[in-house]
Design a protein that fits this description.
The chain is mainly α. The protein has eleven helices and no strands. The radius of gyration is 23 Å and the shape is globular.
């Protein structure tokens, strides 16, 4: 167990440092420290998500009995991934520290000048995400490894697959950070993020309740009354922030497409007026992008 924990403790921070150094030193890139930190943190999060989803698929697909069947990868990956959540608290803070100093960022003028004040500001802003990570380490880890006593590996595998939505979330953060909301990639990624987050995180616990209902041969609506109270409590506490983050994604998507529509309409109207003034002038194509349109950045993994 200690060997696996140590491996995770070295792997995730080491990959972050290696990625950051490569982005800063590759001749064709030569990114600044802040850019390298932000993108490296997203790359590590995306890789962890791919690893977790792959492990989850292997575990879930190998379990015929959803309660009794076990797979060695379940506890192994849990112990390997626990250091990631500790590392990610630090990585998120570094992203926050550098984002406030990106030229033109809406909060640049209010950026804290000292590490201590920046940390307090970060904890206030990202309290829910930091709390989520702390709970994963202090509650979910011991429950998953020790308390459940090897039962329910299928459910654990399905929960690993919730990370499938993380790569699109990370790409969306990078595109927003570098003002690429007007691109087709951002719109396609936004739609993909909306779909995968809804399927993998919002529908996660209803699906698990449905699967258990089939296994126990009881109606879906009676499942909450048939499982231990602490299972319902844990599911509710884990699902609540997912619903909140999903609402942020929906609001951001709505603003994005409304803003795009308004921008295209304004550009068309402006071009028409120019044509009326000067019949020889050609209207400029609208790109549907306004640097003044606000965009909510989802703070979740």
């Amino acid at each position: 167990m200690l060997t696996i924990l140590a491996a995770g403790s070295v792997f995730f921070p080491g990959l972050f440092l290696l990625s950051k150094q490569c982005l800063k030193s590759i001749p064709s890139l030569r990114w600044s420290e802040g850019d390298a930190v932000i993108v490296s943190a997203r790359l590590v999060s995306s890789l962890q998500a791919v690893m977790a989803s792959s492990a989850g698929y292997i575990i879930a697909s190998s379990c015929n009995d959803i309660i009794e069947d076990q797979h060695w990868l379940t506890s192994t990956y849990i112990m390997f991934a626990v250091p990631y959540f500790v590392y990610d608290i630090y990585a998120m803070f570094m992203c926050y520290w550098y984002k406030l100093r990106v030229k033109g960022h809406e909060e640049a003028s209010a950026a804290p000048q000292h590490m201590g004040s920046a940390l307090r500001s970060y904890l206030r802003r990202e309290f829910l995400m930091v709390l989520h990570h702390v709970v994963m380490v202090t509650v979910c880890f011991p429950v998953s490894v020790f308390v459940r006593q090897g039962k329910g590996d299928y459910f654990q595998g399905i929960m690993f697959m919730a990370e499938l939505s993380t790569p699109s979330v990370c790409l969306g953060k990078i595109l927003i950070q570098y003002k690429q909301q007007h691109t087709l990639l951002h719109k396609v990624n936004g739609a993909l993020m909306l779909i995968t987050f809804f399927i993998c995180r919002v529908l996660l616990f209803p699906y698990l309740y449905y699967v258990y209902g089939r296994y126990a041969s009881i109606p879906f609506y009676l499942v909450p009354l048939s499982v231990p109270w602490h299972c319902n409590l844990g599911a509710a506490l884990l699902m609540a922030p997912q619903l909140y983050w999903f609402s942020l994604i929906c609001r951001g998507a709505l603003r994005l497409f409304r803003g795009s529509s308004r921008s295209q309409h304004a550009s068309t109207s402006s071009a028409a007026k120019e044509c009326q003034i000067d019949g020889n002038s050609l209207p400029q194509p609208a790109n549907g992008y306004s640097t003044r349109s606000p965009e909510t950045e989802l703070a979740t993994h």
